[in-house]
Amino acid sequence: MQVIRSPKVYDVVVVGSGAGGGIAAKVLTEAGAEVCMLEAGPQWDQARDGKMLGWPYESPRRGAPTERPFGEFDAAWGGWELDGEPYTSAPGSQFDWFRARMLGGRTNHWGRISLRWGPDDFRRKSVDSLGDDWPFTYDDIKPYYDKLDEFVGIFGSNHAAETGLHNEPDGKFQPPPLPRAYELYFKQAADRLKIACVPSRLSILTRPLNGRAACHYCAQCGRGCTTHSNFQSPTVLLSPAMKTGKLTIVTGAMAREVLSNAEGKATGISYVDTTTGEERTVQGRIVVLAASACESARLLLNSKSARFPNGLANGSGVVGRHLTDSTGASLSGFIPKMIGMPHHNEDGTGGMHLYMPWWLHNVKDKLPFPRGYHIEPGGGRRMPGFGFMGGIDRHPGGSGGGYGKGLKDEYRRLWGATIGFAGRGEMVANKDTYMDIDPNVVDKWGIPVPRFHWKFGDAERYQARHMMETFKALIEEMGGTVLGKIPGADEDYGLAAGGRIIHEAGVVRMGDDPNASALNKHCQAHEVKNLFVADAGPFVSQADKNLTWTIMALAWRTCDYIADQRKALAI
Amino acid sequence: MDKLNRRQALQVLGAAPALAGIAWTEAEAQQAHQHAQQARRSAVAAKVAYTPKFFTAHEMATITALTNLIIPKDDRSGGASEAGVPEFIDFMMVDQPDRQLLMRGGIRWVDSECRKRYGQTFFKGTAAQQAELCDALAYPAKARPEHSHGVRFFSAVRDLTATGFFTSKIGIADLDYKGNTFVPVWTGAPKEALDHLGVSYAPLSKWYPEESV
Fold first, then answer.
1. Judged by CB atoms within 8 Å, which residues 160-199 of A form the interface with B?
2. I need a surface site. Which of A196, A381, A534, A564 has the fewest CB within 10 A?
3. d(C-alpha A449, C-alpha A87), whole Å
């Protein structure tokens, strides 16, 4: 097949348009670079494609998750299964790989939970002897968190001095929204149980910023925001990058390989034009991979040459290793006290206004797991959707089923009297959990696909057990009853399967030792000086906090380094 | 905080091409607005044109009768069929074909049981016969073991009816759900809601210095 080569040589080719790619486009174009961004999916037009402020009855399926796992109105074109783009799991393993194929990737629908990591999160080996320290400290990345807070916008509060939680550092926050009534109620319970409960940190504007309107509190961030009040890569990052006139975005461009030359430099990307099926290449002086951790690792492993027989930047053999996801488990409770709540609009922002950061770091030696988790609560009278009050026959506040006028009243009475808690915790990388390339399977473009190997350790199971015990205690402290059965040891205490929390990281890790890491402390490949990674691939460890804010801070730091090196003509 | 008036809010909501970000032209705003209008018109048109896609006439009649028994009309709102529940369930059979067997087979099970008991199908039965059958199936924990297949079917119909009814316009109005709207300034929960739970903003004023709490 003929390959169509573009004669133009860009300063930088960026693969991926999500959190990391968006930062790369903004920072590098503003530094003067001509950037070409490849995105595997199509353009997403928020005004045309977004469903903000829509009602369930505007669709015949009422928002059912038939085509999108988070429901019909969710702003992610993608899911754990994509037609013609398979992946495999090794025998006895399960890992579910979520991909959004669209401009902006998963930033269009994500939870906006933007937890700045703390000093301990970058030096875990020094703290508990497990895993590795990062090749830099919190102080090195702090200025980039500050820039993000100020440019992208985030609400929250500084509470480290008051709570004594030194690993939850202060930030540059817009004022947090007042809690919902039921949030004050679970805070009372948390206070009595000595569980820290503080304003959440979400990248949603409560004040106008850079021409973007403040939130209008419809609670539908997951549908994408038509007023650009929350963080989405296209509206917040690609928009200023486009204004420089230096950004070219190519959608429908599925990357196949990173191209390299005899000197061992990256020269560009070969990709498939998914609309026409044509094979194309784009050339760049520098290549930045921000395709998501596992896509970037897959690209490197598929970029084999005589000089790089293990794949590009993989002389160490570490690419694909150290795969992790956040641990996750959840439990809901029926809270009788919430019955008869005077009706009011409880929507608020798209997500919690109060949350529980990891609060037990001082007693961690007494726990059967090394790292912590935070708790994301939710509940109340939210917009009715598909699955409304399902399984009412098992509801502890109900009459065991029924039908007729009595049942109709029962739905009215019990709706909204529920609070749920979801834990998100830190998994420690292990040698049995990694990805490689399946030797037998290609996708519809002929690109070899990842094969996942997954194993949780006892630490992750004990963490899930601790989550369940904590959630049960909170529910009962509120006078409530757990909904459903609390999963036991036979179900790993409700621990979600690998990939289900969609926080995959670590497969292109950084470090000072070229034999144990693919990238140096600038996320620059040890073996290929003009190749960088700007997603969660470089992460040395997870944290008990979500990844996105750190993906972006790290990408910003990496791109500042690229700009400095270009100025110095070092790459 | 900047307060948007309704006109400004509508402008912001109707007009935001994906990459405009900060400023958009009048023409782009117009285009975005037309997109939104067109989408809404199509949805309405689609609903009007809807015809059963999966159920036979007998099945549709049976499902309609069942859903109206599960959520009947009362003094506050209409019943399941007024909310479009039978059409919704029929649509879901095509949308999620894994559900078809339970529904089609479940209706046959119910009719077979009714023939044994009353010599006629569920739909043709008297109100008393239909109620008797529902009573046998509607309480899983109390139901007789030989009715387990019917119980499973009934529970599935009840769940689909609840979704269909309470996601409809009349169901949402029935619940008095007050959200999904443009709120220029978030002021938290009203005092009567706080009092209901015995909570107050006062202890948290340190975190909300700009709010009058």
1. 162, 175-182, 184-185, 187-188, 198-199
2. A564
3. 5
